[in-house]
Each structure stands twice: as C-alpha cells, then as structure tokens.
Amino acid sequence: MRDNIRITSYQTILLIIAFRIVLAFSYLPAINTPPGNQDNWIMILLSMFYTIILCFPILFLGNKFKDFTLVEYMDLIFGKVFGKIIGLFYSLIFLLFAIIFISIMVEILDSTIFPETPAWVTSSLMIITCIYVSYKGLEAIGRGAEIFVPLILAVIIIIPILGLDVLDFSVFLPILSDSSFKDINSGAIDIGIKFLDILILAMIVPYLDKREDLNKIFMKSLVYSILIIVLMIVVVQAALGIEQAKHANFPFFTFTRLINVFEIVHRIESIYVIIWIISNIGKITGYLFFSTVALSQTLKKKG
C-alpha cells in the first residue's frame, strides 16, 4: 500500500513548519527560555546550529534507510525484540504529544472563546475532527497542508504589519548587554533539543515522492520555522514589553488584541483564533496518524 501513498517535498516542508510553529503560536515558550530578555531572538537564530547537530543522527539514518520509517529501521538496527520496544515507545510518544496538544487547544478555547462550554464537549469535538482527518490518510493531510499552511503563514506575517503602531523596538537595545555567552548557548541548546518534529519527518521519508530531498526538506523547514518564531518573539516583546511578554498566558494572542487599524479593523484576534485552530487540528491529526502508523508497523500489521 505504501507504493500508492506519496507526499511531495513541498507538502512535507509545509507540514513540518506548521508542526514546529504551533506551540509558538500558542504559548511562545521561547520567550522564557534563557537568556529570557531582549536577546532571545539571537538565541533562537543560534539554535539552528544546535538543532542540526542534534538531528544529524536521525537524518543520517533517514538517508541510509530511505525505504523504511523510523519504526521500521529500528527493527533492522536493534533486532525484533528491542525494535518492537522502541516502536511501541515512539507510538506512545506520538500519542502523548497529540493528547498534550489537545489539552492545550481545549484550555485556550475554553478560556478565550467558549468559557461557558464544558471542557468535555470541546475536547470531544476536537478529537472527533482530528480522528476523521487522520483516517483520511497522509495524502489528505499533505493536501490540507498545501491549502492551509500558506494561509497560516500569511496571517502570521500580516498581523505584525497591521500592528506596527503598537511596536516599540527600542526594548531590544542595547543588544547583548544583559546576556552571557552561557545563557544564550544553553537556551539555544534547549530549543534544539525540542525540535521533536524531526521524528515526524523520519516517519514520512519512505512516503516522499523524492526521498533524496530529505536534507533539503529538513533545512528549509528548520530555517523557515525559526524565522517565523523569531518574528513572533520580536513583535510580542516589542508590543508587550520584555517582562510583560514573559508573563502573558498567550503572548501572540494578547498582541493581536492590541491591534486597531485606523479605527476600522477591529477584532483581529478572531482571525488569529481561526488560523490557530486550523494549525492545531493539523498538528494533532499528524501526530495521531503517525501514532497509528508506528503502532501498526510495530505489530507488523499492513496499512
């Protein structure tokens, strides 16, 4: 069945970018990562170097075993017994992250849009939606990425432009005055370690229409996602202030609520919420899908 399932390099890049920026779109945890000040954008850029180093082993294996997913070549490397244990571990990891993302999504929806709606109702709707999309398969997920991710990225770029009047870039001066070499590097390493979407990429490899593009896909998705996260950090800190941004529950959402263009464009946060919901559904769907793929391959079931 795998021979009939294909996803393009472009679709894969969009998927990894979307998966990468969803958490930033929600909590923007990088704001509180060391050094935790006006130099965090530098730390994020530096994290690309550490991410490449930390992801190299999986990239190497992905290039060596292009016909196999991460779970399948664990069998080849460690044997059937340990391979099954590792495969089950990855399956549970993907499922765990899907559950975490669902809980984050429900928390934000319940606190911002549906405060009177029981959490179980919101959770059920999200789970049913994600399971349905996941059931449609990888090609459907790829086509969805091709349609929605450019829209998501466009909104992320347009919102800061609309909010230029509330941005104070003087908060970033003086550069590197309050940060040590150790803090910036420890923060960059922390961000690099959290690039867990490399595991999704490792699962996608045998489904790629051009498997030789694996390294290009990784580099492009890494660079583009990092630049987007830097943009988010810069506009949030410039709008809210360095300290206030660190204490905001949903920093980028808080920034969008400040935007008021010539007294004409209001409620920009509504657009943000719609795009945010779409991006979260995409990520949850992807992790649910690969959780089932990992489990089926661990148990040696076809599908």
From TrEMBL:
Pfam families according to UniProt: Spore_permease
UniProt cross-references to InterPro entries, sorted A to Z: Spore_GerAB
Keywords associated with the record: Germination, Membrane, Transmembrane, Transmembrane helix, Transport
TM ranges: 12-29, 41-61, 81-106, 118-135, 147-167, 187-209, 221-242, 271-295
GO cellular component labels: membrane
Lineage top rank: taxon: Bacteria
Location in or out of the cell: Membrane
GO process annotations (BP): spore germination
Topology versus the membrane: Multi-pass membrane protein
Coarse class of the protein's main subcellular location: membrane
PANTHER family: SPORE GERMINATION PROTEIN A2
Similarity-based family: Belongs to the amino acid-polyamine-organocation (APC) superfamily. Spore germination protein (SGP) (TC 2.A.3.9) family.
Protein name (record): Spore germination protein
Lineage: Bacteria, Bacillati, Bacillota, Tissierellia, Tissierellales
